[in-house]
């Protein structure tokens, strides 16, 4: 018999109501439970079977979702050998989905949620640059295309939701998850985050995947940059910085939100009703579902200690606005008991189940629960996805300095030394949340240079040292190689590589537990540092190569800013490549030899040393002048990035020069490529509210645009400024525009900006 909820012609709301009315209490609870997917199947001798202990749960509707069904990494224990190739991935998803639908009472499909921080975290998927590199492109349109490609690969294998993008604002880059963010500015973060939401969800219902914006909220504001530590910030700053990107992502249609592990002013985010209901739903109108981070419910009782036990933890979270638990441990063990004891009202349970079911209907899972294994295989082989990965890496590389025109290097060079721990280690180039990779899938910097120069040049390699090791025994060999060469490219930085057997993993959350520097990993989730200098003896390696007198280029491959003033002072040419993904080696070589003109700009400030932290650019005027030992200026500012060409700005105008809060003004500037090569420029617009009822930052990014210019070409760029750009959060926590004078700053570098004024007059409507 076909029930109304099976009728695709009916509105989603009616389908949900009909289905919910037919469900038992246990079936409703099942929709809120997300279990670890890699445990649900057995892959042995080429055959895929469902794990026996999962069959009964699937048949009674006790599993609403699987997390990381296709995930492969040290935490899951899934390797290249034991994991699933693209075609097998689709077959495995179909197997489990078919069992769930055909053997359960109501045939509700399972939601498969996957990690896609910078590409689907499964075997054979494209590995894109990490988000901090994506932010360095300042190109939301390009990033949207990349996210669309990620969605296509993921959905073709059966994944229908992902746990990205991360919208956390970085205040302290010692935080190990800095690489997963879009940096320190809320407007840049919002632009990149909404681009991700559009790209990931663009093919819905059958090609796209549900975006989950995370971590809600203020996860990047933790004390000391320590993962999950309390965020001690005020309500105005919370709304101005941390909530703004989330609000924009909800406006863009994000279907899911993940809670943060941390607390804000004593209230854990996972049980914060003001965040999850009052702001997210009642104020912003969010109509998707809220999922916890892995193990977060257990922390309410065992960590934050705001709940007496699992029953109370489940009740606190549900009543605050949580709808699904990643890992499912607390809901599976305690939620039925909480309902029976009246701690969780049936209406609250119904509300959460309805939200999950609604998203499943909107994803088209009831009409199209299965995927085509042949298509999964063909999508994974698309060359255009690798092209996008390379282009993103190119545009995300930041030329930090280039004294004496050291770059680009000549392709006529005959002997080049490629040195350093990150020159040829493919995993050190990829970042955290990366699956095992076959050797031929990754182009390292060494490989990219060899491919670029071909057989006419001799390219030799020396590691010199490892990322975290204090072993200096190979530094002499590296220096000798540099003396042989016409130029040396030294590739140093960090590592987020979770290599098998190298580290200890928290089996609940998957986070790294190691604090021992003998492990060659110094970045990633759970890997926070007390310093931002190069780990190990990497600086000594750079210094030894510099002392040979050979021309030196330093390339940083890393997940957080590197604070090394010595390198800035002594090395002429320095590139920040972040973790550039599987095509990163080609992209670095393209920049080094001038086939691509660098256009990246920093999305985060780089301090001279950690004693300056925080150094984000949008500080208050009362920030202070200097320390005894140093000033407060960073080594490199937010928005900084050089090019092989030069750009001139002229003709800055604001029209009209006087508006009311209900009006808009156009800001226009001319940009000319005054150099000899084509290039891309990021035009940045900042404002300052001169007099305000609450203190305001000295500068705030409000608009930006990336443009391409041929040599001698001029373009006119126009930005619109209105209420959204001029408003601020006042003492009543509302957003208002006050009359007064605004300074407008426009340019390609935050240290060299044209200025103009805009006057906002009192509206006659308010008189």
From TrEMBL:
Keywords, alphabetical: Hydrolase
SUPFAM superfamilies referenced in this protein's UniProt entry, alphabetically: (Trans)glycosidases, Beta-D-glucan exohydrolase, C-terminal domain
InterPro entries named in the record: Cellulose_Degrad_GH3, Fn3-like, GH, Glyco_hydro_3_C, Glyco_hydro_3_C_sf, Glyco_hydro_3_N, Glyco_hydro_3_N_sf, Ig-like_fold
Domain of life of the organism encoding this protein: Bacteria
TM stretches of this protein: none
Ranges for domain Fibronectin type III-like: 681-750
UniProt key word Hydrolase: yes
Protein name: Beta-glucosidase
């Amino acid at each position: 018999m076909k029930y109304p909820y099976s009728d695709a012609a009916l509105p989603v709301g009616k389908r949900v109501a009909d289905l919910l009315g037919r469900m038992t209490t246990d079936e409703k609870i099942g929709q809120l439970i997300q279990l670890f997917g890699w445990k649900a199947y057995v892959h042995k001798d080429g055959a895929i079977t469902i794990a026996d202990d999962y069959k009964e749960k699937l048949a009674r509707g006790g599993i609403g979702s699987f997390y990381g069904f296709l995930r492969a990494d040290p935490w899951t224990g899934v390797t290249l050998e034991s994991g699933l190739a693209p075609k097998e991935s689709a077959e495995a998803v179909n197997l489990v989905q078919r069992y769930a639908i055909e053997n359960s009472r109501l045939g509700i499909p399972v939601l498969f949620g996957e990690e896609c921080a910078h590409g689907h975290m499964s075997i054979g998927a494209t590995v894109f640059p990490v988000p901090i590199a994506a932010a360095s492109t300042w190109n939301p349109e390009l990033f949207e295309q990349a996210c669309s490609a990620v969605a296509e690969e993921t959905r073709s294998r059966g994944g229908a939701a992902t746990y990205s993008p991360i919208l956390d604002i970085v205040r302290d880059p010692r935080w190990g998850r800095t690489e997963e963010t879009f940096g320190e500015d809320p407007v840049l973060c919002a632009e990149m985050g909404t681009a991700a939401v559009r790209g990931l969800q663009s093919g819905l219902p059958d090609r796209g995947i549900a975006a989950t914006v995370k971590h809600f909220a203020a996860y990047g504001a933790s004390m000391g940059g320590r993962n999950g530590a309390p965020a001690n910030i005020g309500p105005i700053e919370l709304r101005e910085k941390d909530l703004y990107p989330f609000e924009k992502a909800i406006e863009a249609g994000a279907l899911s939100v993940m809670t943060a592990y941390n607390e804000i002013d004593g209230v854990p985010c996972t049980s914060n009703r003001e965040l999850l209901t009052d702001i997210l739903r009642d104020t912003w109108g969010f109509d998707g579902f809220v999922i916890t981070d892995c193990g977060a419910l257990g922390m309410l009782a065992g960590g934050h200690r705001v709940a007496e036990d699992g029953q109370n933890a489940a009740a606190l979270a549900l009543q605050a606005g949580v709808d699904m638990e990643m890992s499912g441990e607390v809901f599976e063990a305690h939620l039925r008991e909480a309902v029976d004891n009246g701690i969780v009202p049936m209406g609250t349970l119904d509300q959460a189940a309805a939200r999950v079911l609604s998203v499943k209907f909107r994803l088209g899972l009831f009409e199209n629960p299965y995927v085509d294994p042949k298509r999964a295989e063909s999508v994974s082989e698309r060359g255009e996805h690798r092209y996008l990965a390379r282009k993103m890496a190119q545009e995300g590389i930041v030329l930090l300095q280039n004294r004496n025109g050291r770059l680009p290097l000549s392709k006529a060079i005959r002997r080049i030394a490629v040195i350093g721990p990150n020159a040829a280690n493919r995993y050190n180039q990829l970042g955290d949340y990366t699956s095992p990779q076959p050797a031929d899938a990754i182009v390292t910097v060494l490989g990219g240079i060899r491919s670029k120069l071909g057989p006419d040049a001799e390219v030799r390699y020396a590691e010199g040292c490892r990322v975290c090791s204090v072993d200096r025994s190979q530094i002499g060999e590296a220096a000798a190689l540099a003396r042989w060469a016409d130029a040396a490219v030294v590739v140093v930085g960090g590592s987020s590589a979770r290599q098998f057997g190298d580290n200890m993993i928290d089996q609940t959350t998957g986070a790294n537990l190691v604090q021992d520097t003998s492990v060659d990993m110094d970045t990633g989730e759970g890997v926070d540092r007390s310093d931002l200098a190069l780990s190990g003896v990497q600086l000594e390696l750079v210094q030894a190569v510099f002392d040979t007198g050979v021309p030196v280029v330093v390339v940083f491959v890393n997940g957080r800013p590197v604070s090394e003033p010595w390198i800035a002072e002594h090395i002429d040419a320095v590139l920040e490549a972040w973790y550039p993904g599987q095509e990163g080696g080609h992209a670095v070589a393209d920049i080094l030899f001038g086939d691509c003109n660098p256009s990246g700009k920093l999305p985060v400030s780089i301090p001279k040393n950690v004693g300056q932290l925080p150094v984000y650019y949008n500080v208050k005027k009362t920030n202070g002048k200097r320390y005894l030992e140093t000033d407060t200026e960073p080594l490199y500012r937010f928005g900084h990035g050089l090019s092989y060409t030069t750009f001139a700005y002229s003709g800055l105008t604001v029209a009209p020069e006087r508006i009311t809060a209900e009006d808009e003004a156009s800001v226009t500037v001319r940009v000319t490529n005054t150099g000899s090569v084509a290039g891309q420029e990021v035009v940045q617009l900042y404002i300052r509210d001169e007099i305000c009822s609450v203190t305001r930052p000295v500068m705030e990014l409000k608009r930006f645009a990336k443009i391409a210019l041929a040599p001698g070409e001029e373009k006119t760029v126009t930005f619109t400024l209105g209420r959204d750009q001029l408003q601020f959060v006042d003492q009543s926590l509302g957003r208002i525009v006050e009359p007064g004078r605004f300074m407008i700053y426009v340019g390609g570098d935050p240290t060299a900006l044209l200025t103009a004024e805009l006057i906002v007059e009192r509206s006659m409507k308010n008189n």
